Amino acid sequence: MIAVKVSMKATHKPLKRIPAALQAVRTLAALTPSRPLQTPDDQASLTAAIHQPQRHGLRLRLTNAVTSYLRKMRGSTRGATPRVSNSEVLWSWLGSFLGIALVAWLNEAISTQRTHASVWLESIGLTPTDGLLLIGSFGASAVLLYGAPRSPLAQPRNLIGGHTVSALIGVSAWLLLGPLLPWLAAALAVSTAIAMMHLTRTLHPPGGATALIAVIGSEQVHAMGYLFVLIPVTLGALLMLLVALLINNLARGRRYPEFWL
Fold it and tell me: Of 48, 184, 188, 211, which shows the fewest CB atoms inside 10 Å?
């Protein structure tokens, strides 16, 4: 009696495995083609079926990348910059007025009056329009110096260093490529000036305009060569810095500079 029970237990487990084995055989038969892939069409169909998931995944990743890229253009915050107080507006106006007025007045005085300085300027072929103290990029510097005096981009290191480095790069780009490829010289001057300002920790946005002026300026400006770096760039920036030190510290709530070096 014991022997019979043992034999039944021994044959019971294989019987349970039969349905699973049959299912595996059926699955394999379903995956196996009914006839061999002998024609090129059959092989092409199989290849397309294999690569279709890969193409779908690549398309999905590309779509997600483009969507994420476009989503950045919506901005990360809502609303514009909050309005400053009326006193802040007044001090910004006063500082920028006095800063540009000083540079423009000295520029006109030197260029028009018969002084030793004006005679020297004429000797190197400069006209009042080319003005030796006033350039367009100083208008952008005035916004930072007097409108946002606490900005890291408005500090003395950035003001003087940014303009000087950019002027050096601009003059070099013109001397290297200007007469042959002025469009390339302009692009090289601005991009290299930005890179060098980053490397020297003197980033000052108007510096990009200074580099561009050195390339697209008049023939008289080009004739100055590296003198353009000293006059008007460095000298004009120093005059604007002087006004910023005097005006930005008059109001109780304003302070300048945040740092020097």
Answer: 48
Q: pLDDT for 163-184, tens place per residue?
A: 999 999 999 999 999 889 999 9
| Terminal-residue alpha carbon distance, the chain | 102
User: What is the DSSP-derived secondary structure letter of residue 84?
Assistant: P
Cα radius of gyration rounded to whole Å, the chain: 37
- pTM for the whole thing? 0.73
Burial class of residue 173, CB neighbours in 10 A (0-12, 13-18, 19+) = buried
176, 211 Cβ separation under 8 angstroms: no
CA angle, 204 then 209 then 213, to 5°: 140
Percentage with pLDDT > 70 across the chain = 71
pLDDT of the residue at 108: 81
